[in-house]
Design goal:
Length: about 525
Protein backbone atom coordinates (compact mmCIF):
# COMPACT_ATOMS: atom_id res chain seq x y z
CA UNK A 1 0.00 0.00 0.00
CA UNK A 2 1.56 3.23 -1.15
CA UNK A 3 0.51 6.35 0.60
CA UNK A 4 -0.49 9.20 -1.75
CA UNK A 5 0.32 7.07 -4.80
CA UNK A 6 -2.63 7.44 -7.15
CA UNK A 7 -2.23 5.42 -10.37
CA UNK A 8 -2.46 6.92 -13.83
CA UNK A 9 -5.81 6.63 -15.61
CA UNK A 10 -7.54 6.27 -12.27
CA UNK A 11 -7.58 9.53 -10.40
CA UNK A 12 -10.45 10.17 -8.05
CA UNK A 13 -10.28 13.92 -8.06
CA UNK A 14 -12.01 16.13 -5.56
CA UNK A 15 -14.75 17.93 -7.42
CA UNK A 16 -16.90 19.89 -4.98
CA UNK A 17 -16.99 20.37 -1.25
CA UNK A 18 -19.33 22.25 1.03
CA UNK A 19 -17.15 23.54 3.84
CA UNK A 20 -18.53 24.78 7.14
CA UNK A 21 -17.37 25.08 10.70
CA UNK A 22 -20.79 24.51 12.20
CA UNK A 23 -21.45 21.20 13.91
CA UNK A 24 -25.11 21.43 12.85
CA UNK A 25 -24.64 21.66 9.10
CA UNK A 26 -24.76 18.99 6.43
CA UNK A 27 -21.38 18.54 4.74
CA UNK A 28 -20.71 16.61 1.57
CA UNK A 29 -17.71 15.78 -0.54
CA UNK A 30 -18.03 14.70 -4.15
CA UNK A 31 -15.44 12.68 -6.04
CA UNK A 32 -15.23 12.35 -9.80
CA UNK A 33 -14.48 8.76 -10.77
CA UNK A 34 -13.00 9.49 -14.18
CA UNK A 35 -15.36 6.92 -15.72
CA UNK A 36 -18.69 6.99 -17.48
CA UNK A 37 -21.65 4.66 -17.22
CA UNK A 38 -21.15 3.64 -20.85
CA UNK A 39 -17.40 3.04 -20.77
CA UNK A 40 -15.72 -0.35 -20.68
CA UNK A 41 -14.46 0.50 -17.22
CA UNK A 42 -17.07 0.04 -14.51
CA UNK A 43 -16.79 1.18 -10.92
CA UNK A 44 -16.32 -1.52 -8.31
CA UNK A 45 -16.14 -1.39 -4.51
CA UNK A 46 -17.86 1.99 -4.45
CA UNK A 47 -20.51 1.06 -1.93
CA UNK A 48 -18.55 0.59 1.28
CA UNK A 49 -17.77 2.88 4.22
CA UNK A 50 -15.43 1.79 7.01
CA UNK A 51 -15.43 3.28 10.51
CA UNK A 52 -11.77 3.63 11.48
CA UNK A 53 -11.88 5.44 14.82
CA UNK A 54 -13.45 8.44 16.56
CA UNK A 55 -12.03 10.89 14.04
CA UNK A 56 -11.61 8.99 10.75
CA UNK A 57 -13.63 7.00 8.24
CA UNK A 58 -12.72 5.60 4.84
CA UNK A 59 -14.23 4.34 1.64
CA UNK A 60 -12.74 2.01 -0.94
CA UNK A 61 -13.30 2.64 -4.62
CA UNK A 62 -11.95 0.86 -7.64
CA UNK A 63 -12.39 0.27 -11.32
CA UNK A 64 -12.88 -2.85 -13.36
CA UNK A 65 -13.53 -3.57 -17.01
CA UNK A 66 -16.41 -5.53 -18.49
CA UNK A 67 -14.70 -8.76 -17.44
CA UNK A 68 -13.82 -9.40 -13.84
CA UNK A 69 -10.31 -7.97 -13.52
CA UNK A 70 -10.12 -5.07 -11.10
CA UNK A 71 -7.68 -2.54 -12.54
CA UNK A 72 -7.11 -0.15 -9.65
CA UNK A 73 -8.20 0.24 -6.05
CA UNK A 74 -7.91 3.42 -4.01
CA UNK A 75 -8.90 3.92 -0.39
CA UNK A 76 -9.76 7.43 0.78
CA UNK A 77 -9.46 8.19 4.49
CA UNK A 78 -11.53 11.22 5.53
CA UNK A 79 -11.84 13.30 8.67
CA UNK A 80 -15.22 12.84 10.31
CA UNK A 81 -15.38 16.44 11.40
CA UNK A 82 -15.27 18.07 7.96
CA UNK A 83 -14.71 15.20 5.47
CA UNK A 84 -11.26 16.58 4.64
CA UNK A 85 -8.93 14.04 3.02
CA UNK A 86 -6.54 12.61 5.59
CA UNK A 87 -4.69 10.26 3.24
CA UNK A 88 -5.01 8.36 -0.02
CA UNK A 89 -3.76 4.77 -0.33
CA UNK A 90 -3.44 2.79 -3.55
CA UNK A 91 -4.40 -0.70 -2.43
CA UNK A 92 -4.42 -2.40 -5.81
CA UNK A 93 -2.65 -1.79 -9.13
CA UNK A 94 -3.08 -4.31 -11.93
CA UNK A 95 0.16 -3.17 -13.57
CA UNK A 96 2.15 -4.67 -10.70
CA UNK A 97 0.82 -8.22 -10.89
CA UNK A 98 -0.44 -10.57 -13.59
CA UNK A 99 -3.79 -11.80 -12.37
CA UNK A 100 -6.38 -14.11 -13.78
CA UNK A 101 -9.43 -12.68 -15.54
CA UNK A 102 -12.21 -15.26 -15.10
CA UNK A 103 -11.52 -18.24 -12.84
CA UNK A 104 -14.68 -20.08 -13.88
CA UNK A 105 -18.14 -19.41 -15.21
CA UNK A 106 -19.56 -19.43 -11.68
CA UNK A 107 -17.54 -16.68 -10.05
CA UNK A 108 -14.91 -14.10 -10.82
CA UNK A 109 -11.53 -13.01 -9.58
CA UNK A 110 -11.61 -9.87 -7.47
CA UNK A 111 -8.59 -8.54 -5.54
CA UNK A 112 -9.64 -7.38 -2.09
CA UNK A 113 -8.45 -5.10 0.67
CA UNK A 114 -10.35 -5.22 3.95
CA UNK A 115 -10.03 -3.51 7.31
CA UNK A 116 -10.65 -6.21 9.91
CA UNK A 117 -10.80 -6.17 13.68
CA UNK A 118 -10.63 -9.07 16.10
CA UNK A 119 -13.45 -8.10 18.46
CA UNK A 120 -12.21 -10.50 21.08
CA UNK A 121 -8.60 -9.31 21.24
CA UNK A 122 -9.44 -5.76 20.03
CA UNK A 123 -6.60 -5.84 17.47
CA UNK A 124 -6.72 -4.32 13.97
CA UNK A 125 -5.60 -6.05 10.77
CA UNK A 126 -5.54 -5.45 7.03
CA UNK A 127 -6.37 -8.44 4.82
CA UNK A 128 -5.39 -8.53 1.14
CA UNK A 129 -5.98 -11.20 -1.51
CA UNK A 130 -5.71 -11.70 -5.26
CA UNK A 131 -5.72 -14.61 -7.72
CA UNK A 132 -2.80 -15.16 -10.09
CA UNK A 133 -2.73 -16.69 -13.57
CA UNK A 134 -2.10 -20.12 -12.09
CA UNK A 135 -5.49 -19.90 -10.36
CA UNK A 136 -3.90 -19.58 -6.95
CA UNK A 137 -5.46 -17.21 -4.44
CA UNK A 138 -2.80 -15.37 -2.42
CA UNK A 139 -3.93 -14.07 0.99
CA UNK A 140 -1.87 -11.85 3.30
CA UNK A 141 -2.56 -10.46 6.77
CA UNK A 142 -0.88 -7.27 8.00
CA UNK A 143 -0.86 -5.49 11.32
CA UNK A 144 -2.59 -2.11 11.49
CA UNK A 145 -2.58 0.73 13.99
CA UNK A 146 -5.56 2.68 15.31
CA UNK A 147 -5.71 4.69 12.06
CA UNK A 148 -5.44 1.48 10.00
CA UNK A 149 -2.03 2.38 8.67
CA UNK A 150 -0.53 -0.78 7.23
CA UNK A 151 2.23 -2.35 9.31
CA UNK A 152 4.29 -5.52 9.01
CA UNK A 153 3.03 -8.73 7.49
CA UNK A 154 1.67 -11.09 10.14
CA UNK A 155 0.94 -14.16 8.04
CA UNK A 156 -0.01 -15.47 4.60
CA UNK A 157 -1.53 -18.51 2.92
CA UNK A 158 -2.54 -19.67 -0.56
CA UNK A 159 -5.68 -21.38 -1.82
CA UNK A 160 -5.47 -23.29 -5.11
CA UNK A 161 -8.47 -23.01 -7.48
CA UNK A 162 -10.45 -21.10 -4.85
CA UNK A 163 -12.03 -17.65 -4.66
CA UNK A 164 -13.34 -15.91 -1.54
CA UNK A 165 -17.10 -15.36 -1.58
CA UNK A 166 -17.27 -13.01 1.42
CA UNK A 167 -15.18 -10.86 3.72
CA UNK A 168 -12.67 -12.90 5.71
CA UNK A 169 -13.45 -12.89 9.41
CA UNK A 170 -10.92 -12.67 12.25
CA UNK A 171 -11.95 -13.66 15.76
CA UNK A 172 -10.06 -15.10 18.72
CA UNK A 173 -6.76 -14.88 16.78
CA UNK A 174 -8.15 -17.08 14.00
CA UNK A 175 -8.94 -16.27 10.37
CA UNK A 176 -12.16 -17.72 8.94
CA UNK A 177 -12.63 -17.90 5.17
CA UNK A 178 -15.31 -19.24 2.84
CA UNK A 179 -14.20 -19.92 -0.73
CA UNK A 180 -15.66 -21.47 -3.85
CA UNK A 181 -13.61 -24.38 -5.18
CA UNK A 182 -13.98 -24.42 -8.98
CA UNK A 183 -12.59 -27.94 -9.41
CA UNK A 184 -15.10 -29.65 -7.11
CA UNK A 185 -18.09 -27.33 -7.47
CA UNK A 186 -18.12 -26.87 -3.72
CA UNK A 187 -17.65 -24.35 -0.94
CA UNK A 188 -14.74 -24.67 1.49
CA UNK A 189 -14.76 -23.34 5.06
CA UNK A 190 -11.22 -22.94 6.39
CA UNK A 191 -9.80 -21.66 9.67
CA UNK A 192 -6.19 -20.47 9.95
CA UNK A 193 -4.11 -19.05 12.74
CA UNK A 194 -2.71 -15.55 12.24
CA UNK A 195 0.52 -16.87 10.73
CA UNK A 196 -1.45 -18.61 7.97
CA UNK A 197 -1.22 -22.16 9.33
CA UNK A 198 -4.36 -24.14 8.41
CA UNK A 199 -6.09 -25.38 11.56
CA UNK A 200 -9.19 -27.11 10.16
CA UNK A 201 -11.45 -27.18 7.11
CA UNK A 202 -14.72 -28.58 5.85
CA UNK A 203 -16.04 -28.85 2.30
CA UNK A 204 -19.73 -28.37 1.54
CA UNK A 205 -21.38 -29.56 -1.67
CA UNK A 206 -23.48 -27.04 -3.62
CA UNK A 207 -26.88 -28.02 -2.30
CA UNK A 208 -27.94 -24.77 -0.78
CA UNK A 209 -31.38 -25.61 0.57
CA UNK A 210 -30.41 -28.94 2.14
CA UNK A 211 -30.92 -29.06 5.89
CA UNK A 212 -28.26 -31.68 6.45
CA UNK A 213 -25.57 -29.75 8.38
CA UNK A 214 -22.84 -31.51 6.38
CA UNK A 215 -23.94 -30.15 3.00
CA UNK A 216 -25.23 -26.93 1.55
CA UNK A 217 -23.27 -24.36 -0.42
CA UNK A 218 -22.42 -20.86 0.73
CA UNK A 219 -23.41 -18.18 -1.80
CA UNK A 220 -22.55 -14.49 -1.65
CA UNK A 221 -23.26 -12.94 1.73
CA UNK A 222 -25.19 -9.76 2.41
CA UNK A 223 -22.59 -8.62 4.93
CA UNK A 224 -19.65 -9.90 6.91
CA UNK A 225 -19.72 -13.06 8.98
CA UNK A 226 -20.34 -12.35 12.63
CA UNK A 227 -20.43 -14.12 15.98
CA UNK A 228 -23.80 -15.11 17.43
CA UNK A 229 -24.89 -12.54 20.08
CA UNK A 230 -25.21 -15.13 22.85
CA UNK A 231 -22.79 -17.90 21.85
CA UNK A 232 -19.40 -17.11 20.35
CA UNK A 233 -18.88 -20.71 19.23
CA UNK A 234 -21.49 -20.04 16.54
CA UNK A 235 -20.98 -17.99 13.38
CA UNK A 236 -23.82 -16.33 11.48
CA UNK A 237 -23.73 -16.03 7.69
CA UNK A 238 -26.39 -13.66 6.30
CA UNK A 239 -27.33 -14.29 2.65
CA UNK A 240 -28.79 -12.15 -0.09
CA UNK A 241 -28.22 -14.26 -3.21
CA UNK A 242 -29.59 -17.72 -4.03
CA UNK A 243 -32.21 -17.10 -1.40
CA UNK A 244 -32.14 -14.97 1.73
CA UNK A 245 -31.90 -15.75 5.39
CA UNK A 246 -29.12 -16.90 7.70
CA UNK A 247 -26.92 -19.94 8.10
CA UNK A 248 -25.47 -20.73 11.54
CA UNK A 249 -22.25 -22.77 11.71
CA UNK A 250 -20.33 -24.02 14.71
CA UNK A 251 -16.80 -22.71 14.25
CA UNK A 252 -15.28 -25.63 16.19
CA UNK A 253 -17.14 -28.58 14.66
CA UNK A 254 -17.93 -26.75 11.38
CA UNK A 255 -21.40 -28.33 11.47
CA UNK A 256 -24.25 -26.31 9.97
CA UNK A 257 -27.62 -25.78 11.54
CA UNK A 258 -30.75 -25.77 9.35
CA UNK A 259 -30.97 -22.73 7.10
CA UNK A 260 -33.30 -20.07 8.55
CA UNK A 261 -35.48 -18.29 6.00
CA UNK A 262 -39.11 -17.73 5.06
CA UNK A 263 -40.78 -20.96 4.05
CA UNK A 264 -43.36 -21.18 1.29
CA UNK A 265 -46.32 -20.72 3.63
CA UNK A 266 -44.80 -17.64 5.29
CA UNK A 267 -43.95 -16.12 1.91
CA UNK A 268 -47.50 -16.71 0.65
CA UNK A 269 -48.94 -15.12 3.80
CA UNK A 270 -46.82 -11.99 3.27
CA UNK A 271 -47.97 -11.79 -0.33
CA UNK A 272 -51.60 -12.12 0.71
CA UNK A 273 -51.47 -9.75 3.69
CA UNK A 274 -48.82 -7.23 2.63
CA UNK A 275 -48.87 -7.56 -1.15
CA UNK A 276 -45.15 -8.35 -1.19
CA UNK A 277 -43.73 -10.23 -4.15
CA UNK A 278 -39.97 -10.60 -4.68
CA UNK A 279 -37.95 -9.50 -1.66
CA UNK A 280 -34.42 -8.09 -1.82
CA UNK A 281 -32.97 -7.93 1.70
CA UNK A 282 -29.77 -5.91 1.71
CA UNK A 283 -28.83 -5.83 5.40
CA UNK A 284 -29.36 -7.68 8.66
CA UNK A 285 -29.32 -6.87 12.37
CA UNK A 286 -28.96 -9.46 15.12
CA UNK A 287 -30.30 -9.62 18.66
CA UNK A 288 -30.16 -12.23 21.41
CA UNK A 289 -33.34 -14.02 20.39
CA UNK A 290 -34.12 -12.72 16.92
CA UNK A 291 -32.76 -11.09 13.79
CA UNK A 292 -34.06 -8.53 11.31
CA UNK A 293 -33.58 -8.46 7.56
CA UNK A 294 -34.39 -5.23 5.74
CA UNK A 295 -34.43 -4.10 2.14
CA UNK A 296 -36.92 -3.46 -0.61
CA UNK A 297 -39.51 -5.60 -2.36
CA UNK A 298 -41.73 -5.54 -5.39
CA UNK A 299 -45.41 -5.56 -4.60
CA UNK A 300 -48.86 -5.26 -6.08
CA UNK A 301 -49.66 -1.58 -6.48
CA UNK A 302 -53.32 -2.35 -7.14
CA UNK A 303 -55.29 -5.53 -7.59
CA UNK A 304 -56.23 -7.08 -9.93
CA UNK A 305 -54.07 -5.09 -12.39
CA UNK A 306 -50.87 -6.63 -10.90
CA UNK A 307 -48.94 -3.41 -11.47
CA UNK A 308 -45.77 -3.69 -9.41
CA UNK A 309 -44.40 -1.17 -7.00
CA UNK A 310 -41.20 -1.08 -4.93
CA UNK A 311 -41.55 -0.67 -1.20
CA UNK A 312 -39.18 -0.80 1.75
CA UNK A 313 -39.64 -3.56 4.30
CA UNK A 314 -38.19 -5.33 7.30
CA UNK A 315 -38.93 -8.77 8.70
CA UNK A 316 -38.08 -9.92 12.21
CA UNK A 317 -37.66 -13.66 12.80
CA UNK A 318 -36.48 -15.83 15.65
CA UNK A 319 -33.57 -18.21 15.10
CA UNK A 320 -36.01 -21.09 14.57
CA UNK A 321 -37.55 -19.38 11.54
CA UNK A 322 -40.74 -18.03 13.10
CA UNK A 323 -41.86 -14.64 11.75
CA UNK A 324 -42.31 -12.25 14.67
CA UNK A 325 -43.06 -9.04 12.79
CA UNK A 326 -43.30 -7.78 9.22
CA UNK A 327 -43.37 -4.07 8.51
CA UNK A 328 -43.57 -1.94 5.37
CA UNK A 329 -42.75 1.74 5.31
CA UNK A 330 -42.53 4.47 2.74
CA UNK A 331 -44.96 5.72 0.14
CA UNK A 332 -47.98 3.96 -1.33
CA UNK A 333 -47.51 5.84 -4.59
CA UNK A 334 -43.77 6.50 -5.01
CA UNK A 335 -41.28 3.70 -5.66
CA UNK A 336 -38.51 3.70 -3.06
CA UNK A 337 -35.64 1.37 -2.28
CA UNK A 338 -33.34 1.03 0.69
CA UNK A 339 -29.86 -0.47 0.28
CA UNK A 340 -28.42 -0.39 3.79
CA UNK A 341 -29.85 -0.90 7.27
CA UNK A 342 -27.95 -0.19 10.50
CA UNK A 343 -28.96 -0.45 14.16
CA UNK A 344 -27.21 1.86 16.62
CA UNK A 345 -28.16 2.87 20.18
CA UNK A 346 -31.66 1.37 19.94
CA UNK A 347 -32.45 3.26 16.73
CA UNK A 348 -32.73 1.92 13.20
CA UNK A 349 -31.25 3.75 10.23
CA UNK A 350 -31.86 3.23 6.52
CA UNK A 351 -30.32 4.73 3.41
CA UNK A 352 -31.76 4.50 -0.07
CA UNK A 353 -33.34 6.48 -2.88
CA UNK A 354 -36.70 8.13 -3.51
CA UNK A 355 -38.14 7.78 -6.05
CA UNK A 356 -36.41 4.71 -7.47
CA UNK A 357 -38.49 2.84 -9.99
CA UNK A 358 -35.95 2.22 -12.76
CA UNK A 359 -33.63 -0.69 -12.02
CA UNK A 360 -30.41 0.66 -13.59
CA UNK A 361 -27.87 2.30 -11.31
CA UNK A 362 -27.34 5.21 -13.69
CA UNK A 363 -30.82 5.49 -15.20
CA UNK A 364 -32.26 8.85 -16.21
CA UNK A 365 -34.40 9.20 -13.13
CA UNK A 366 -34.33 12.12 -10.70
CA UNK A 367 -33.65 10.49 -7.34
CA UNK A 368 -33.09 11.93 -3.89
CA UNK A 369 -30.75 10.45 -1.33
CA UNK A 370 -33.05 9.22 1.43
CA UNK A 371 -32.02 8.74 5.07
CA UNK A 372 -34.47 7.43 7.67
CA UNK A 373 -34.18 6.99 11.42
CA UNK A 374 -36.75 5.01 13.36
CA UNK A 375 -37.32 4.24 17.01
CA UNK A 376 -40.32 2.63 18.75
CA UNK A 377 -41.90 6.08 19.20
CA UNK A 378 -41.08 8.06 16.06
CA UNK A 379 -39.66 8.06 12.56
CA UNK A 380 -37.59 10.85 11.03
CA UNK A 381 -36.61 10.97 7.38
CA UNK A 382 -34.71 13.40 5.24
CA UNK A 383 -34.28 13.78 1.49
CA UNK A 384 -31.16 15.30 -0.06
CA UNK A 385 -30.25 16.57 -3.50
CA UNK A 386 -32.84 15.50 -6.09
CA UNK A 387 -31.42 17.06 -9.25
CA UNK A 388 -29.36 13.91 -10.02
CA UNK A 389 -29.99 10.17 -10.05
CA UNK A 390 -28.59 9.57 -6.57
CA UNK A 391 -28.45 6.01 -5.29
CA UNK A 392 -27.87 5.66 -1.54
CA UNK A 393 -25.47 2.75 -1.10
CA UNK A 394 -23.96 2.63 2.38
CA UNK A 395 -24.45 4.06 5.84
CA UNK A 396 -22.25 4.59 8.87
CA UNK A 397 -23.37 5.81 12.31
CA UNK A 398 -20.58 6.95 14.64
CA UNK A 399 -20.59 7.07 18.44
CA UNK A 400 -21.99 10.63 18.36
CA UNK A 401 -24.95 9.36 16.30
CA UNK A 402 -23.79 11.45 13.36
CA UNK A 403 -24.80 9.84 10.07
CA UNK A 404 -22.45 9.34 7.12
CA UNK A 405 -24.07 8.26 3.86
CA UNK A 406 -22.36 7.14 0.67
CA UNK A 407 -24.20 7.64 -2.59
CA UNK A 408 -23.43 7.62 -6.27
CA UNK A 409 -24.87 9.41 -9.29
CA UNK A 410 -24.09 9.95 -12.94
CA UNK A 411 -24.57 12.81 -15.39
CA UNK A 412 -27.13 10.65 -17.12
CA UNK A 413 -28.62 13.56 -19.08
CA UNK A 414 -25.27 14.74 -20.47
CA UNK A 415 -22.03 12.74 -20.60
CA UNK A 416 -22.77 9.84 -18.16
CA UNK A 417 -19.84 10.72 -15.88
CA UNK A 418 -19.99 8.86 -12.56
CA UNK A 419 -19.53 10.56 -9.19
CA UNK A 420 -19.36 9.31 -5.60
CA UNK A 421 -20.62 11.46 -2.71
CA UNK A 422 -19.96 11.14 1.02
CA UNK A 423 -22.52 13.12 3.05
CA UNK A 424 -22.28 13.89 6.76
CA UNK A 425 -25.62 14.47 8.51
CA UNK A 426 -25.31 15.69 12.13
CA UNK A 427 -27.51 13.79 14.56
CA UNK A 428 -29.53 16.94 15.24
CA UNK A 429 -31.08 16.66 11.77
CA UNK A 430 -32.80 13.44 12.75
CA UNK A 431 -34.13 14.42 16.16
CA UNK A 432 -35.59 17.91 15.56
CA UNK A 433 -38.49 17.00 13.27
CA UNK A 434 -40.88 14.23 14.25
CA UNK A 435 -43.03 12.90 11.43
CA UNK A 436 -46.69 12.12 11.76
CA UNK A 437 -47.62 9.57 9.10
CA UNK A 438 -45.59 11.33 6.42
CA UNK A 439 -46.72 11.26 2.80
CA UNK A 440 -43.96 10.87 0.26
CA UNK A 441 -44.12 12.84 -2.95
CA UNK A 442 -41.75 13.44 -5.84
CA UNK A 443 -40.97 16.97 -4.68
CA UNK A 444 -37.63 18.38 -5.84
CA UNK A 445 -36.04 21.56 -4.46
CA UNK A 446 -33.48 23.49 -6.48
CA UNK A 447 -31.06 25.13 -6.87
CA UNK A 448 -29.40 23.49 -3.91
CA UNK A 449 -27.34 25.23 -2.52
CA UNK A 450 -29.16 28.53 -3.10
CA UNK A 451 -28.50 32.17 -2.30
CA UNK A 452 -32.04 33.51 -2.57
CA UNK A 453 -34.89 31.72 -4.35
CA UNK A 454 -35.61 28.06 -3.65
CA UNK A 455 -37.85 26.50 -6.30
CA UNK A 456 -40.14 23.60 -5.42
CA UNK A 457 -40.99 21.21 -8.23
CA UNK A 458 -43.78 18.69 -7.71
CA UNK A 459 -45.63 20.51 -4.92
CA UNK A 460 -49.07 22.09 -5.26
CA UNK A 461 -49.83 25.76 -5.02
CA UNK A 462 -51.71 26.51 -1.82
CA UNK A 463 -49.74 23.99 0.24
CA UNK A 464 -48.06 25.25 3.36
CA UNK A 465 -44.32 25.25 3.86
CA UNK A 466 -42.09 25.54 6.91
CA UNK A 467 -38.35 26.26 6.99
CA UNK A 468 -36.81 24.89 10.16
CA UNK A 469 -33.26 25.11 11.52
CA UNK A 470 -31.41 21.98 12.51
CA UNK A 471 -32.14 22.77 16.14
CA UNK A 472 -35.88 22.65 15.40
CA UNK A 473 -36.45 26.45 15.39
CA UNK A 474 -39.05 27.69 12.91
CA UNK A 475 -37.32 30.21 10.64
CA UNK A 476 -40.11 31.07 8.21
CA UNK A 477 -43.39 29.68 6.96
CA UNK A 478 -45.97 30.48 4.35
CA UNK A 479 -48.10 29.20 1.50
CA UNK A 480 -46.79 28.24 -1.91
CA UNK A 481 -47.98 30.50 -4.70
CA UNK A 482 -48.34 29.59 -8.35
CA UNK A 483 -44.64 30.36 -8.84
CA UNK A 484 -43.82 27.61 -6.31
CA UNK A 485 -40.70 29.37 -5.07
CA UNK A 486 -39.58 30.45 -1.62
CA UNK A 487 -37.35 33.46 -0.94
CA UNK A 488 -34.73 32.41 1.62
CA UNK A 489 -32.33 35.32 1.06
CA UNK A 490 -32.76 36.50 4.65
CA UNK A 491 -31.53 33.24 6.14
CA UNK A 492 -27.98 32.95 7.42
CA UNK A 493 -25.61 30.56 5.69
CA UNK A 494 -26.10 26.96 6.71
CA UNK A 495 -28.35 23.92 6.30
CA UNK A 496 -32.11 24.02 6.77
CA UNK A 497 -35.05 21.65 6.61
CA UNK A 498 -38.00 22.39 4.31
CA UNK A 499 -41.32 20.77 5.17
CA UNK A 500 -44.32 20.80 2.86
CA UNK A 501 -47.84 19.78 3.68
CA UNK A 502 -51.09 20.94 5.18
CA UNK A 503 -52.65 21.28 8.59
CA UNK A 504 -53.70 17.65 8.43
CA UNK A 505 -50.48 16.17 7.11
CA UNK A 506 -46.74 16.45 7.70
CA UNK A 507 -44.64 15.65 4.66
CA UNK A 508 -41.19 14.18 4.47
CA UNK A 509 -38.50 16.82 4.89
CA UNK A 510 -36.08 18.08 2.25
CA UNK A 511 -32.71 19.50 3.24
CA UNK A 512 -31.32 22.54 1.46
CA UNK A 513 -28.24 24.68 1.97
CA UNK A 514 -28.30 28.46 2.11
CA UNK A 515 -25.11 30.04 0.80
Amino acid sequence: MNRFNTPLLFILSLLFTITTFSQNTVIDRTFSSGFTANSNDMLYYTHRLDDINDSLLSYLVGSKDTGSTVKFGVRYTLSKSDLAINRIDTVWNLNKLNVVNDLSQNFTSVPINFFLKDDRSNVNFIFEAYIDTNYTQHCSIYSADNDYLKGNIVGSFNQQFESLVNDPFIYDNMIHTFSVDSTRDSTVFKIYDLSGQLLRLRTYAHNFFANDPLIGGVPVLAQSILVHPTNDSLLILPYYTYGYGIQIINRYTMMKKPFVTLDGVQGANLTNTMGWLTKFPSSYAFYNNSFVMAGYCSQFRSLPSLEKDFAMFKIEMDYNGQVLKAEEFGSDTVDERTYEYVVKNNAEYYVGSSPCRIQGYYAREYRKLMVLKQSPTYRDSLLFYGDKNHLGMDLLIDDNDDVFALSQYSSAWTDDSIFTVVTKIPNSFLIGIKENNPQITSVRVFPNPTMDLLKVDGAKSGETYRVVSVSGQLMQEGILTNEKSINVAALKQGSYILQLGSQQQTYRANVFIKQ
